[in-house]
């Protein structure tokens, strides 16, 4: 949603060419390739860009530091656009996705937790917790914040912070609205928002 | 030229079995061609559009076993649009009309309808064996027809097919008189089967050696089945979930102890890890273990299991085994010949395998000749070590999950690593590349990979030179498939005669243009040059300068095919 809009805007400005990234060279290439190829007509610009991309693989200076979460921010959108990569039979892919939904016991469900203003993200294993109160207690300890009382009507109104999460559809949801198991299976990442930001999420 | 009567030559030809050898025989002289074609029973057709069924039947009237492959390999990865082709129907219709006594049919990547299965089941009284791999288009109704009508069925083997479940009782359609089953594999079916019918079927099939169940068959049914079939050699377990304290589980453990002939194990489509201890007793006998669909087994459980499997020759697992786990494999499975490590999530598992695991395997398993390895990273140094340790590779398929990733230690492309592989493994027949690669790797491949028959390339190379090195150097090349590489018209057109020595060429998201494909098609009338025009817009006039998104060309004696969908242009 927000992310993809931002990405396409950046493309128009060609910010990527001048962007300083902490990522291995070539990690963004697949996305560029598939975007270029959606042009029906082969234009000189397109083939030049391709040449630059291929040469770019060779000449770019690899950076020494690849911070984990920066790579993750850069890579997933690119990967999502490459059809047929990695080369796994669709039958196998479909089977795996099915299973991920069902099993997951013992596999650990690590999700990132970010907080506005915090210098770095944390990761927690959702499988370790059995209920919302447990989770919120841990989050509160980790980030030294409080969440206040949850109510269906008001959300976490009245507290300084509110826990939110991104679900499978990419939407940002308030933690606590759905049954715990449903939350665990649909939560992709957590974000602790300031109460004022979260007001919009709470009141519906 | 013939010093012997035909009968003697026929008798000698009986000993010549492989397709290549039989093909060679038929080229010696007219008389041998004639004798060979009347005695030929097994035919392999790698591309169903390379010849018409009528011509096949005309040449080999004694045909008993037919293998057909349909869609190009990249169809596995959703690169070939729906309804491209590969239909079984015309083949069955032609065979049914003829006097061919078909007994065995093996299909890969074909579109199989219920009608063709029904026709098949009714047309050949001695039909014995049906093997479908990665096919689609049929439902359990088609399977019911096979079960009901093929009175002497020995083998029904369904591998990784997309089958629509119609909730009928296809398994119950095997008549009581059917006692000939040797192999039954329905692991890929999603629906339930009648457990009673299954148990009765197993009970009346004394020759049953291979049985692969689907997820719907629970552990207690498995136990009853195994009781009735202690002679099983190859078992695919569906569901393996039970309370370890339950009666059912204890009975299972005892039954397993009696199944000493099981040498091949697979499945565990649904599994509770604490149940695995039940199979430890048969592990020492296993030569083949396929846990690539057992998502419920974690790394530590896998490792514990593998410690018992000292005789393994073939191992298919998921990358949750980790580098450490591969180290255990290397220590335990000294006879390992084939290893496949699949990603447990489409973009890999952070705790998964790297070059370290592969190096460990190469050090511990010198007999390794077939590899499919999905990993997060690979280094040149590791590949060079692997090449030195395992010079016997026949198949080497490496997939670094992140496209274009270089050697993480040196940040260089992986040319030297793959170069070492082709230089060391003189018997290499199949190779899949990944990671960051320049034209250099293709120079090495052209120079050293003399036996190479199939090459898969993605996101690699810098210029036409890369593709040309391969086309010029690999004399035995049969299948070349390329995606997202900067190879263009010059590479495509430099040696057009080459393509008649190959089965097929696939190029997608490369630099070839419509004009070049048209030119190629004109020069080589015995090639079908297909381009896929998937744009939904109506301005479908193909201008010569336009880049081709997907091109698939193959040699053929059948001419332009008549069943191509609208978006396929055969030039």
From TrEMBL, chain B:
It comes from Cajanus cajan (Pigeon pea). GO terms for cellular component: nucleus; SCF ubiquitin ligase complex. The lineage of its organism: Eukaryota, Viridiplantae, Streptophyta, Embryophyta, Tracheophyta. Keywords: Auxin signaling pathway, Developmental protein, Nucleus, Ubl conjugation pathway. This is Protein AUXIN SIGNALING F-BOX 3. One of its GO terms (molecular function) is auxin binding. Signal peptide: none annotated. Coiled coil: none annotated. It is found in: Nucleus. SMART domains: FBOX, LRR_CC. Its main location: nucleus. It holds the Pfam family F-box_5. Pathway: Protein modification; protein ubiquitination. One of its GO terms (biological process) is pollen maturation. InterPro entries: COI1_F-box, F-box_dom, Leu-rich_rpt, Leu-rich_rpt_Cys-con_subtyp, LRR_dom_sf, Transp_inhibit. Residues 4-45 form the F-box domain. It comes from the Eukaryota.
């Amino acid at each position: 949603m927000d992310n993809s809009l931002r990405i396409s805007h950046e493309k128009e400005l060609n910010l990527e060419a001048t962007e300083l990234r902490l990522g291995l060279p070539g990690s963004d290439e697949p996305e560029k390739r598939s975007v270029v190829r959606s042009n029906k007509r082969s234009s000189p610009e397109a083939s030049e860009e391709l040449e630059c991309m291929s040469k770019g693989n060779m000449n770019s200076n690899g950076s020494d530091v690849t911070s984990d979460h920066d790579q993750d921010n850069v890579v997933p959108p690119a990967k999502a656009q490459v059809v047929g990569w990695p080369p796994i039979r669709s039958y196998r892919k479909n089977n795996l996705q099915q299973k991920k939904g069902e099993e997951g016991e013992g596999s650990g469900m690590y999700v990132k937790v970010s907080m506005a203003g915090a210098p770095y993200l944390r990761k927690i294993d959702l499988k370790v917790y059995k209920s919302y109160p447990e989770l919120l207690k841990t989050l509160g300890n980790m980030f030294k914040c409080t969440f206040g009382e949850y109510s269906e009507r008001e959300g976490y109104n009245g507290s300084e912070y509110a826990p939110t999460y991104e679900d499978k559809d990419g939407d940002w949801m308030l933690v606590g609205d759905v049954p715990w198991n449903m939350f665990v299976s649909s939560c992709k990442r957590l974000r602790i928002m300031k109460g004022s930001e979260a007001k919009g999420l709470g009141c519906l | 030229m013939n010093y012997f009567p035909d009968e003697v030559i026929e008798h000698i030809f009986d000993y010549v079995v492989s397709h290549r050898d039989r093909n060679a025989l038929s080229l010696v002289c007219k008389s041998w061609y004639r004798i060979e074609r009347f005695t030929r029973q097994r035919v392999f057709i790698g591309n169903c559009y390379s010849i018409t069924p009528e011509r096949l039947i005309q040449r080999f009237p004694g045909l008993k076993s037919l293998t057909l492959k349909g869609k190009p390999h990249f169809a596995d990865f959703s690169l070939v649009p729906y309804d491209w082709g590969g239909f079984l129907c015309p083949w069955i219709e032609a065979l049914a009309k003829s006097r061919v006594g078909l007994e065995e049919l093996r299909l890969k990547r074909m579109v199989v309808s219920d009608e063709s299965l029904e026709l098949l089941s009714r047309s050949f009284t001695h039909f014995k064996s049906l093997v479908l791999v990665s096919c689609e288009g049929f439902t359990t109704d088609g399977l019911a027809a096979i079960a009901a009508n093929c009175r002497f069925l020995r083998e029904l083997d369904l591998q990784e097919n997309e089958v629509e479940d119609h909730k009928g009782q296809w398994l119950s359609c095997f008549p009581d008189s059917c006692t000939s089953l040797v192999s039954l594999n329905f692991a890929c079916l999603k629906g339930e089967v009648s457990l009673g019918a299954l148990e009765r079927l197993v009970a009346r099939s004394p020759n049953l050696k291979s049985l692969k169940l689907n997820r719907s068959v629970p552990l207690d049914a498995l136990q009853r089945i195994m009781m009735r079939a202690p002679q099983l050699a190859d078992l695919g377990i569906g569901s393996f979930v039970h309370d370890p304290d339950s009666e059912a589980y204890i009975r299972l453990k005892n039954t397993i102890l009696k199944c000493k002939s099981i040498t091949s194990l697979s499945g565990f489509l649904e599994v509770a890890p604490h149940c695995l201890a039940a199979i430890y007793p048969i592990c020492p006998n296993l030569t083949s273990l396929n846990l690539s669909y057992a998502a419920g087994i974690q790394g530590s459980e896998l490792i514990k299991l593998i410690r018992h499997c000292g005789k393994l020759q073939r191992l298919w697992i998921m990358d949750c085994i980790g580098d450490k786990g591969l180290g255990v494999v290397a220590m335990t499975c000294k006879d390992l010949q084939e290893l496949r490590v699949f990603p447990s999530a489409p973009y890999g598992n952070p705790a998964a395998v790297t070059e370290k695991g592969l190096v460990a395997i190469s050090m511990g398993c010198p007999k390794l000749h077939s590899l499919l390895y999905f990993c997060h990273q690979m280094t040149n140094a590791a590949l060079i070590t692997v090449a030195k340790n395992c010079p016997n590779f026949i198949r080497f398929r490496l997939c670094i999950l992140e496209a274009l990733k270089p050697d993480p230690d040196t940040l260089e492309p992986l040319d030297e690593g793959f170069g070492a592989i082709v230089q060391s493994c003189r018997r290499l027949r199949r190779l899949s590349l990944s990671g960051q690669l320049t034209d250099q790797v293709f120079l090495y491949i052209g120079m050293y990979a003399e036996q190479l028959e199939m090459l898969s390339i993605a996101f690699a190379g810098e210029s036409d030179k890369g593709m040309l090195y391969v086309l010029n150097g690999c004399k035995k090349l049969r299948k070349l498939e390329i995606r997202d590489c900067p190879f263009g018209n010059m590479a495509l057109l430099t040696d057009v005669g080459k393509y008649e020595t190959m089965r097929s060429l696939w190029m997608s998201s490369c630099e070839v243009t419509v004009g070049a494909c048209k030119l190629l098609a004109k020069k080589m009338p015995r090639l079908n040059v297909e381009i896929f025009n998937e744009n939904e817009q109506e301005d479908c006039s193909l201008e010569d300068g336009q880049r081709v998104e997907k091109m698939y060309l193959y040699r053929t004696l059948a001419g332009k095919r008549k069943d191509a969908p609208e978006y396929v242009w055969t030039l």
